[in-house]
Each structure stands twice: as C-alpha cells, then as structure tokens.
Amino acid sequence: MLMSPEITPGGYTPPERRLLGPGPSDISTRVLQALAKPTIGYLDPSFVGMMEELKALLRYSFQTRNALTFPVSGPGSAGMEMCFVNLVNPGDKVIVCRNGVFGGRMVENVERCGGIPVIVDDVWGTPVDPQKVADAFRQHPDACVLAFVHAETSTGALSDADTLCRIAREHDALTIVDTVTSLGGVPVLVDQWRADAVYSGSQKCLSCTPGLSPITFSERAVDTVKGRNRKSQSWFLDLNLLLGYWGETTRTYHHTAPTNSLYALHEALRVLQQEGLENAWARHRSNHLALKAGLAELGIEFVVAEDARLPQVNSIHIPGGLDDKQVRGALLQQHGIEIGAGLGALAGKIWRIGLMGYSSRVENVIACLNAMESVLMAQGVKAEPGSAVAAAYRAYAAQATAR
C-alpha cells in the first residue's frame, strides 16, 4: 500500500494578491460567490435557461447578433484552435499577422491544420500594418483566411480590426480575430467589423475564472464549417458536433460542461452589462492615464506609441541597471502585487502592468505606483517620494474636470 502523503493541515489557502499582470485578473466577490452555487446537470432545463442568457450576454459583449455565440470549454488557446481547425483545411493559404507571441501561435495553428501560412511581420510593440496585409493579398489572391490579434497581450499593442477585416472582405477571405485581451476593455465590434470567427478569454477584462473562451461565428463562417468535405482534425473542438449542444433548438450531449465556471461567467457578464460597455471602456482608459502619469514621475517609458496603446496592458521598458526578476519578486513578496514579465524577444526588457476588468480600479493604480516607487528607489532609481501617486491623483482630477 502506498504511504499517505503529507498535506497542509486545513487545506490549501492561497495568499492575497493584487493581480496586475497580463492575466488572470482579480475576481469580484459576486463572481466568486457564483462559483459556489449548487452544481446541477448540464442538460437540466434550469441550466439550459442559464445558457441562453449567457449566450445573449456574450452577444452584447461582442456587439454581435451572431446566433452561434457561446463559451468554449477551455482557455483562449482552445478558442483559437477551434477557429483554425474548423476553418482551415490542408492546403489552404492563410495570411497571418505576427506582431507578437500570439500572432506566432496563430502561425503554428495554421501549420498544424496543414494550411500554408503567409506571414505578415511587424515589429513587436507596433500594430499590424494594413498596407502590408493588402500587399499580401495582392501577392496571394488565393488566400482564403486572414488571421490577426486585435490586442497583442505580449506587447500591449492594439491593431485596427475594422480596417483589417475590410481588406479581407475585399478579397473574399474569412477573418479569424483574437480578442482575448480586448473584450470588455476596449471596443470589440464584431458586427461593425463584419468579422467571421472571433474568440476571447474569460480571465482578462471579463474578470472570470480562467478556463473558458467566449467565441462567436458569423453566418458565413458557419456555412463554411457545414460545407467542409472532411472532418475537423479535432473531435473535441469540431464545431459541427458542438452545434448540437450550443445550438438554438437542440441540446444533445457532447461533453461534460464546466457547470460552475459557466455560472461564474454568467455573473461576470452580468456585471459588465450592468456597468455598460462604454463605461467599462472609459474606466480602463481612465486608470491607464493615471498609471501613465505616475510612471512618468519614475522615468519609465512605454513600449507602444500612444495611438496604438492598450489601456489594459501597459507594457513599459525596464529602466537601465535594474534586474527584472528582482523587481518583480520584491513587488510580489513585499507588496503582494503581481506584474508580468516580457515574453519572447522582449523577455527581460519590459514589464507588463495589467489593469483588466475588476483589477482596473483606482485603489490598484495607487497601490501599484506606491509599491513601484518604493522598490525602484530601494534599487537606486532617483525619484521624489510620493511623486508618482501625486501625479496619478492629478490625472484623475484633470479627467474629472474635463467631464
């Protein structure tokens, strides 16, 4: 018989943190309480009614009337893969925009589907260049899909989804759009863009638990999936099979849905609806401006130009002479604040401060600036004590006056 393992008496208790990285974000008490509701069967009529509300709330969040709008049982990466395995066949040519880590993952998805990626590269920290995309379509008129990341989490850069989708339509190509970091934080306007397959994540600006990927498909995308002459390479993510569970008229077993996580997403979307999308976007913008003002007092510069900068992912250059891991470790251990490191080519060169969803609050901005000032000054950065927070408060006051 195996020896019984030693475990922590009383069970695991996570430490209190302010989650100010690129995800996950803080979760409100309302959403945490929703997780604790009684579990019922996923074909229970009561649960089915909740599913319909959840779909309607997602349509509001995506600003779409798409009938096929639902949460995938899996993180944003599962939503990404669902789009590719259903819309890309072997031999299909796909134009993929790569201006950060997640554009690179799109390339790999195309390759794993047997498609042919046509890569449009832009410097990390800059948005996708629409002219390069237009040029790629002229050079590859047989391309049938355009894939791009709306809000590149690895850099904090925001691309012009409206223009990119228009270019794709002009060449009769479908679009796959990553809104994992943008949904709920900046305008995501699926119907206005006329985007075809758009996916997101539950743990960023929606401030829900990780593990769900909201997704929406246009009628054109659904027709493409139904017209496939071969099965998707993924059984679990095959949209034709999932139509029976998330469709409008039928409820047939496909997989065991994550019941309590769906309760939480339903509540998180109710929170967003009650605040109002425009108010949520304005809140993210307001807190970004205050953080920006405070960081300027510490001599910290942003990676992304202001006109393409995400308010919810603040990518900043690490001041010369500072050790990335030491600073982030001090923020976590001394102040209970988590910020993000750089990824890929930007590892060790930048930090990413997330102000997403429930994390995008005045008290978090002030706490972050207080902690940053304390840690940086301890490592030799010259600054006037209290200046960062004072600058943030001045920024808030200026915004209030402007209103």
What would the keywords be for this entry?
Aspartate Aminotransferase, domain 1; 2 domains; 14 helices; alpha/beta; Aspartate Aminotransferase, domain 2; 403 residues; three-stranded antiparallel sheet; 43% helix; globular; seven-stranded mixed sheet
Task: Please render the helix and strand layout as text.
Layout (H helix, E strand, L loop, with lengths): L17 E2 L9 H7 L9 H18 L5 E6 L2 H12 L5 E6 L2 H12 L3 E6 L8 H10 L5 E5 L1 E2 L4 E2 L2 H10 L3 E5 L11 H4 L3 E3 L12 E6 L1 H8 L12 H8 L12 H17 L1 H21 L15 E5 L6 H12 L1 E2 L1 E2 L8 E5 L7 H17 L8 H16 L1
Describe the structure concisely for a colleague.
It contains 14 helices and 14 strands.
Description:
The chain contains 14 helices and 14 strands. The chain is α/β, with parallel strands linked by helices. It has two domains: 29-273, Aspartate Aminotransferase, domain 2 (3-Layer(aba) Sandwich), CATH 3.40.640.10; 277-402, Aspartate Aminotransferase, domain 1 (Alpha-Beta Complex), CATH 3.90.1150.10. The strands form four sheets. It has a seven-stranded mixed β-sheet, sandwiched between helices.
Distance between the termini: 70 Å
Strand order of the largest sheet: 2-10-9-8-5-3-4
Q: SSE string, helix = H, strand = E?
A: EHHEHEHEHEEEHEHEEHHHHEHEEEHH
Overall pLDDT score: 95
* Alpha-carbon Rg, integer: 22 Å
Count of helix runs: 14
CATH class of the largest domain: Alpha Beta
The CATH superfamily label of the largest domain reads Type I PLP-dependent aspartate aminotransferase-like (Major domain)
How many domains? The number is 2
Q: Characterize the biggest β-sheet.
A: 7 strands, mixed
CATH architecture of the largest domain: 3-Layer(aba) Sandwich
Give helix % range: 40-55%
Q: How many DSSP-defined strands?
A: 14
- Strand percentage: 5-15%
Uncertain segments are none
- The helix/strand class is alpha/beta
**Overall shape:** globular
Domain Aminotransferase class V: 50-344
Binding site for substrate: 352
Family: Belongs to the class-V pyridoxal-phosphate-dependent aminotransferase family.
GO molecular function: alanine-glyoxylate transaminase activity; L-serine-pyruvate transaminase activity
